[in-house]
Design goal:
Number of helices of chain C: 13
CATH topology of the largest domain in chain C: MetI-like fold
Radius of gyration of chain C: 23 Å
CATH superfamily of the largest domain in chain C: MetI-like
Largest sheet of chain C: none
Number of domains of chain B: 1
Distance between the termini of chain B: 24 Å
Radius of gyration of chain B: 21 Å
CATH architecture of the largest domain in chain C: Orthogonal Bundle
CATH class of the largest domain in chain C: Mainly Alpha
Helix content of chain B: 25-40%
Strand content of chain C: under 5%
Helix content of chain C: over 70%
Number of domains of chain C: 2
Structural class of chain B: alpha/beta
Number of strands of chain C: 0
Oligomer: heterotrimer
CATH superfamily of chain B: P-loop containing nucleotide triphosphate hydrolases
Order of helices and strands of chain C: HHHHHHHHHHHHH
Number of strands of chain B: 12
Distance between the termini of chain C: 39 Å
Chain lengths: 333, 327, 298
């Protein structure tokens, strides 16, 4: 019964050496992705969610001073130990990535057809003509009208939503097993965002991909994700199915995040919940529980680093006082 | 809460065309704002929503006359702002301020935040010069910053703190009306709620009137008393917040509201997904600008521009089909 | 009294400490070429400041008996055809080069800054100023300088004026393009919304943000000014003889290059050192102040 995970990340650590010292951007992250599921990677800027995804594909410059530790298992191989030229055959082929800004991620001097065809030629050993024909079908798949003429357009001739569709078409051209989408809709308007999210869900059903969706928008997470990983300062602080995240969040940070967004359900004009203080810089990561200085329930025990503990089969949390809201009230009583 | 209050800002038939010349003989214009009329009452928050390029930010800047309008009228406390000479305009600016979206570019990187705030008091010669530093400390305190932030440079602050500085700078001159142009869109979730709370607290304490421009409908709903919905330079619908969310009438508003991702995975609703993209404002559709994407468009929508029409007290809609609905 | 002195001392050490820890200074110091440039330039500056002390002979004194002597213990760089000490003349010549260079940098930077800022801020001035600038830039630099010198007559002050006129347009262009970028920043809009008057916006908000490219350009203009001054003097249109300048020492030596190579070589080396030093500093500053390489500063 136990399914084989598509991708398994074990104890990933990503460090950068900078002018002011060594910075740990990702600090011991573990998770699995299965085929056909969408996993949300949630957190505020600087929490290491984008670095995690870049680490999976080792998309760092050779001389950037990045150090990767841990294991990233994909198809029984550790992506951190395979040689870089073999990574090239996986990137864009079996694992694809979509970036936030479709304007800077597309090369302005090539037509969109050329750019989609390029990765097809590279990975699937088709000739250019066949590849262009495939590009047309891909553009059709992502819902671009009259794709035969659109493949001759340059990126600047397309609107933001169209460009993001082209990015998705590029990402899916080789029918990857895993799609990493880094804030794919953040730069888009809500009506276009709705289109793109719907498209991604439809394509996932058709291709049975695993999707890692990196976002800071909990609304988007609720719409499309099956499982959620919440990150704070380079660590996963909570992992659970999406319903559980909104019904029964256990980490005080997750609770705070959910309560601080204004939503259709909250009362208007009511003061919003606020997480005290602000995200510390990565140069000054607190010892012990990273969230303790901002946590309303922190006590002496929180000076020690908590482990990611399993609450039930699908719910893990990194906290000494999981679900402290209830017990906190008890303490007051 | 402020239904009977007098209008503080009245905008009438405001128009802005930006010239774009493709070549010497082809002088075309972008119709950024097209005959917009609205009035903002004293003490309320008027939310202006719409997708990027719909002209909502331009409208905010036109009201402050940071951009010269092509036509129309803006009255602030009965005075037509667009007819004021330079010196008078400067005086009115003391009453009308703006907070920007990007707190990173809104502060001069080479000026310490304290002197950036104090500078505004120097410009308007508020109070005796020796008191201005003390007043700056007061304002820093009001927006939740400390005294020792006075001597720091903008790059030493996080996004949320910078937005507090921007707010402090706008409030230092004691304005009555503040245009908030996407003040929280560039911020992280947890900082967003801090700034929203701060904006509301300042409104209560200083009796401010806001024009709150944003694309995030949940945020706008939270903070606004009334909301105007814009599309391609036109005002499509205008209503009190609760009315608008309970009974959106314009098909665009309906689509916009249904597209908001809801932070509750059990909340499955029928979504009106619009087909196609927003047309280019260089070449807007004839008639109703929304007809190219409208699910209920009829022939008339292609030919005549619908005017804003009152369907219920305080609820105005610009749509041809609105008469057919039984309200 | 003592307390006050202590406070001042403390402030001073704090200041020095902050300079030492300043990341910009640290980066500059880690650029080996730029530090070499600084060293070269320091030597030239010290030479100019202490010229009367360093010179072994008065630079104008002729010793008819010692004409065209090769370098020796008595005459380190040899003597020229009038028996003047080349070493002392080169040392004194540095005063002309440095003072012309510095004056040109100051004059062209200030005037170019004003023109650049105002043409960026007032669009209707822009066309006028920029067309004049285009006109001036159409002339080759040296030719334009010669033409102005011909009109004004050979005097050191006129050398400064003519070279400044040549470089004002370049500075104005650089400042204008930087200012156009700054002008579009939100903080400029903010200060307009706050009722700031144009002079305040231009000088307090736009000008400081245009300084980086201006500083880099100033070092290069310094170097060009040294070269053009030498060229003008070499051509006889610059510093009038007998006052020594590197250019006219070179010029004196050019007919005698076969008999007395030292007359040309030593002022030549001096020019190369100065220009090289300035260019190395300029390159270093450009790397340092370029926003593209400077992203991670904070």
């Amino acid at each position: 019964m136990k399914k084989q995970p598509l991708l398994e990340v074990r104890d990933l650590k990503t460090r950068f050496s900078t002018e002011t010292g060594l910075v740990t951007a990702v600090d011991g992250v573990c998770f699995q992705i299965y085929s056909g599921e969408t996993v949300g990677l949630v957190g505020e800027s600087g929490c290491g969610k984008s670095v995690t995804s870049l680490s999976i594909l080792r998309l760092f410059g050779k001389h950037s001073g990045t150090r990767l530790e841990g294991k990233i298992l994909f198809e029984e191989r550790d992506l951190l130990t395979v040689p870089l030229d073999e990574i090239q055959t996986i990137r864009g082929n079996k694992i694809s990535m979509i970036f936030q800004d479709p304007m800077t991620s597309l090369n302005p001097v090539y037509t969109v057809g050329d750019q989609i065809a390029e990765s097809i030629v590279l990975h699937q050993k088709l000739d250019r003509k066949q590849a262009l024909a495939k590009a047309v079908t891909m553009l059709e798949l992502v819902g671009i009208p009259s794709p035969e003429s659109r493949i001759h357009d340059y990126p600047h001739q397309l609107s933001g939503g169209m460009r993001q569709r082209v990015m998705i078409a590029m990402g899916l051209a080789c029918q990857p097993k895993l799609l990493i989408a880094d804030e794919p809709t953040t730069a888009l308007d809500v009506t276009i965002q709705a289109q793109i999210l719907e498209l991604m869900q439809k394509l996932q059903c058709e291709l049975n991909m695993g999707i890692i969706l990196i976002t800071h928008d909990l609304g988007v997470v609720a719409e499309v994700c099956d499982r959620v990983l919440v990150m704070y300062l380079g660590q996963i602080v909570e992992e659970c199915p999406v319903e559980v995240l909104f019904d029964n969040p256990l980490h005080p940070y997750t609770c705070g995040l959910i309560r601080s967004i204004p939503s259709m359900a909250t009362n208007r004009r009511e003061e919003l919940h606020v997480i005290a203080g602000m995200v510390p810089s990565l140069y000054h990561v607190p010892a012990g529980c990273h969230f303790a200085p901002r946590c309303p329930y922190a006590d002496a025990q929180c000076g020690n680093p908590p482990e990611l503990v399993t609450i039930d089969a699908e719910h893990k949390v990194r906290c000494w006082h999981p679900g402290a809201r209830a017990s906190g009230e008890r303490r007051l009583a | 809460m402020a239904t009977q209050a007098a209008p503080l800002v009245e905008v009438e038939q405001l128009v802005k065309y930006f010239p774009v010349s493709k070549n010497y003989f082809d002088l075309r214009v972008v119709k950024a704002v097209n005959r917009i009329s609205l009035s903002i009452r004293e003490g309320e928050t008027y939310g202006l929503v719409g997708e990027s390029g719909c002209g909502k930010s331009t409208t905010g800047r036109l009201i402050l006359r940071l951009i010269e309008p092509t036509a129309g009228e803006v009255r602030f406390q009965g005075k037509n702002v667009l007819k004021l000479a330079n010196e008078e305009l400067r005086k009115v600016r003391q009453d009308m301020q703006i907070v920007f979206q990007d707190p990173f570019s809104a502060l001069n990187p080479r000026i310490r935040v304290g002197s950036a705030i104090k500078e505004t008091m120097d410009i308007f010669e508020i109070g005796p010069p020796n008191d201005r530093k003390a007043r700056t400390y007061d304002i820093l305190d009001k927006v939740g910053l400390q005294k020792d932030h006075y001597d720091r440079y903008p790059h030493e602050f996080s996004g949320g703190q910078r937005q507090r500085v921007v707010l402090a700078r706008a409030l230092a001159v004691g304005p009555k009306f503040v245009v908030c142009d996407e003040p929280v869109s560039a911020l992280d979730v947890s900082t967003q709620s801090q700034i929203i709370n701060l904006l509301e607290k300042l409104q209560r304490d200083l009796k401010l009137t806001y024009l709150f421009i944003a694309h995030n409908l949940s945020v706008v709903r939270h903070i606004s008393d009334r909301i105007g919905v814009m599309y391609l330079g036109h005002l499509m619908e205008e209503a009190a917040t609760d009315n608008l969310f309970a009974r959106p009438l314009h098909p665009y508003t309906q689509a916009l509201l249904s597209a908001i991702p809801h932070p509750n995975p059990r909340h499955k609703r029928k979504r009106v997904v619009l087909s196609g993209d927003v047309p280019s404002p260089l070449n807007p559709p004839t008639g109703c600008v929304f007809h190219t994407r409208c699910p209920i468009a009829v022939g008339a929508c292609r030919d005549t521009v619908p005017v804003l029409h009152q369907v219920a007290p305080g609820h105005n809609v610009a749509c041809h089909k609105v008469h057919e609905w039984n309200i | 009294m003592d307390i006050a002195a202590n406070a001042i001392l403390k402030k001073k050490t704090n200041f020095l400490e902050s300079i030492r820890r300043n990341i910009v200074v640290r980066r500059f110091m880690s650029n080996r070429l730029a530090v070499t440039g600084c060293a070269l330039l320091t030597i030239i500056f010290l030479m100019a400041i202490f010229a009367p002390l360093l010179a072994t002979q008065p630079p104008l004194e002729m010793k008819v008996t010692d004409r065209l002597k090769a370098p020796s213990a008595a005459y380190w760089f040899g003597t020229d055809e009038f028996g003047r000490d080349v070493y002392s003349r080169v040392v004194h010549g540095s005063r002309i080069s440095i003072s012309v260079g510095l004056s040109v940098v100051v004059i062209s930077s200030v005037l170019g800054l004003v023109l650049g800022l105002y043409s960026a801020y007032y669009r209707h001035l822009d066309n006028l100023i920029m067309r004049v600038v285009d006109g001036l830039m159409a002339f080759p630099a040296v030719l334009l300088a010669i033409a102005i010198m011909a009109a004004l007559g050979p005097k050191v002050e006129n050398v400064i004026i003519s070279i400044s006129v040549v470089y004002i347009p370049t500075v104005a262009r650089t400042v204008r393009s930087a200012a156009l970028v700054v002008r579009e920043q939100t903080y400029i809009e903010a200060i307009q919304a706050l009722g700031g008057k144009p002079w305040r916006i231009i000088w307090r908000h736009i000008a400081p943000n245009c300084m980086s490219p201006l500083i880099v350009q100033a070092t290069f203009i310094f170097a060009y000014a040294v070269i053009i001054e030498a060229s003008l003097s070499f051509l006889g249109a610059g510093t009038p003889p007998p006052q020594p300048s590197w250019g006219n020492i070179l010029s004196d030596g050019r007919t005698l290059i076969r008999q007395a190579w030292w007359i040309m070589v030593f002022p030549g080396i001096a020019i190369v050192m100065t220009v090289l030093g300035l260019n190395l500093i300029g390159d270093g500053l450009r790397d340092l102040l370029d926003p593209h390489t400077n992203k991670a500063k904070s």
